[in-house]
TrEMBL record:
Domain RNA-binding S4 per the UniProt entry, residue ranges: 38-102
BP-aspect Gene Ontology terms: translation
PROSITE patterns: RIBOSOMAL_S4E, S4
Originating organism: Halobaculum litoreum
Keyword annotations of the record: Ribonucleoprotein, Ribosomal protein, RNA-binding, rRNA-binding
Taxonomy, superkingdom: Archaea
UniProt cross-references to InterPro entries, sorted A to Z: Rib_uL2_dom2 (IPR014722), Ribosomal_eS4 (IPR000876), Ribosomal_eS4_central_region (IPR013845), Ribosomal_eS4_central_sf (IPR038237), Ribosomal_eS4_KOW (IPR041982), Ribosomal_eS4_N (IPR013843), Ribosomal_eS4_N_CS (IPR018199), S4_RNA-bd (IPR002942)
GO cellular component, one term: ribonucleoprotein complex
Entry's family note: Belongs to the eukaryotic ribosomal protein eS4 family.
Entry protein name: Small ribosomal subunit protein eS4
GO molecular function annotation: rRNA binding
Gene encoding the protein: rps4e
Length: 232
């Protein structure tokens, strides 16, 4: 199987130039599915910390690059929406956040904010013993005895303990960001949720200071002001 991905056919969320070269690195197995961006692209194309794949491997072998609190050794490891990147030696910390046009971008955060990450609840089931298993937007799972979280809610999970430290319900009045579609990267407040009969997507009206927009439910994620970067 090839280790390369054609730039022109890469997901729109990948922050790469499409026409400079034919190929780029292919994402390895891991969270975020096809939308996951290989860590090499973040290190080389976004941050400019390395120039080659060999340099990236050397840096990762030293355990100085952490994703969601864990050292990463695979330069093809996919990273995606709301992941936390930490560069301990540089004392630099970033949250992966939706940028304009749906491209992933990095929002600088402080060390305290880097201790936890946001996850959108994509699925919920009750398991043996009465606990609840929640599947988050990136495919990871969380088991807890708390059963009040619902699909579309956002949970802030501690990177070390895996405990939920904050809960943002998906409801009218919630602060959200669009992560896909023509309004990707925009932030606003849920004005109205319109439930669509059948299997269609529910519609969401989002208000902003200078207007607003309409999108579909699966394109929005509940956040709070600490996730926008405005607190910097």
């Amino acid at each position: 199987m090839s280790n390369h991905q054609k730039r022109l056919s890469a997901p729109n969320s990948w922050p790469i130039e499409r026409k400079e070269e034919t190929f780029t690195v292919k994402a390895g197995a891991g969270p975020h599915g096809e939308a996951g961006v290989p860590l090499l692209i973040v290190l080389r194309d976004v941050l400019g910390y390395v120039d080659t794949r060999k340099e990236a491997r050397y840096a990762l072998d030293h355990g100085s690059v952490l994703v969601n609190g864990k050292a990463v050794s695979d330069e093809a490891r996919p990273v995606g929406m709301f992941d936390i990147l930490a560069f301990a030696e540089r004392e630099e910390y970033y949250r992966v956040f939706p940028g304009e046009g749906g491209r992933l971008s990095l929002t600088p955060i402080d060390e305290e904010a880097a201790s936890s990450r946001l996850g959108k609840v994509a699925g919920k089931t009750q398991v043996a013993g009465g606990d609840f298993q929640y599947t988050l937007h990136d495919g990871t799972t969380l088991v807890t005895d708390e059963g009040s979280y619902a699909g579309g809610d956002s949970l802030v999970v501690d990177n070390d303990t895996k405990e939920v430290v904050a809960h943002f319900p998906y409801e009218e009045g919630a602060l959200v960001t669009a992560v896909a579609g023509s309004h990707a990267g925009e932030i606003g407040t849920v004005e109205e949720i319109t439930v669509t009969a059948g299997s269609g997507d529910n519609a969401v009206d989002v208000s902003q200071e200078d207007g607003g927009f309409e999108t579909i439910e699966r394109y929005v994620v509940v956040i709070d002001e600490n996730f926008t970067g405005d607190d910097e």
